[in-house]
Amino acid sequence: MNNELTPAGLRVGLSITTVEPALTGGRQDGLGVYSRALLQHLPAAGVEVLPFSFAPPGDKPRLKVGRALPLSFPLATLGDLLLPASVHLSTQAALGRGAAPLDIFHATDYRVVRMDCPVVATLHDALPISHPEWCSARQRKLKNWLQIKAARKAQHVITGSQFSIRELVECFGVDEQRISVVPHGVRAEWFDAPAAEACATTLQQYGLRAGYFLTVGTLQPRKNVDRLLDAYLALPPVLRSARQLVIVGAPGWRSEELVAQIRAAQQRGENVVWLDRLTDDGQLQQLYASAGAFIFPSLHEGFGLPLLEAFASGVPVACSGTTSLPEVAQGAALEFDPLSVGEIGNAMTTLVRDEATRKRCIAAGRRRALELTWDVAARRTVAVYQQVLNR
What is the DSSP string of 58-119? Predict the structure, then answer.
């Protein structure tokens, strides 16, 4: 291995399983946003990026973003279990005969197996172990095992916050010396206000009026949208009449009761709008830009990317004062106890009625977002690659 590699000399394999439309059906979760951002921004940091997916054999011909690794993830994992430690998944086989080998492979999720080059893995949290009540019991054991395996097999681990380091050390037993914090980022286009005509078209499509309360995220228990809904419904009628609550997110695990509560509020004539099928990035940006306040009541986040998107969009933010979110916000958001419906409601009221606080949060949020762009994250990620290779 060349211990004097410069960024321009690095060939990096990047896992983009969570980005590949043939494997995701077009939906993109937080892992997909992260993987796509690295795919787009690492080349500007001076490395050659080769995207790969773990794909079932029948899906390989349909891949559009990158090439398939030689084995599906279940088969590669089985090989890890049954074959000697000297046997590795061959990235060279995927590259083709005569191609220059990879210097490093970056697994952007839990799909980590032995490879013929060093592996860096991004692990965003240890949620299935730290809070099993927020994860499906049917999948919990498998997820725990896969993530623990990923943490131990990778030569180095990247995570998004200092908070997540503590979780990875305590729950997965990862040596803290093998973990680097690389905060996530926000794309440059989020700083550009969308065209007024495009915003108006999107608002009309979904029956929205500018100035609403907005929240974004898959509907699942840890996102705490039920308490946000309760807080909204407890606001004075005049405020609810003037400002809608807009919830953007697909239904997730154990969301049935929340969905029923949303539907019941809508049937009573409350100004609650649920957009469960929004997948267009341009429309999402337009929804942020047209909001009066962004509310993020999550009980647990390894980073909390929606905060940055709201900051960059010039929207005042209120968020939970727990887990990684204060670290990400750095004082740019109003913080509340996510278990207190009253505190959530007070923050919502403050952001739409206190003009001085609104202006302060908007300005501080823009400054914070400028510190955390994907260009910065890509450069920090390349520095981790070099650290691993130069050991």
Answer: GGGGG--SSEEPSS-HHHHHHHHHHS-TT--B-HHHHH-TTPPPPSEEEE-SS----BSS-E
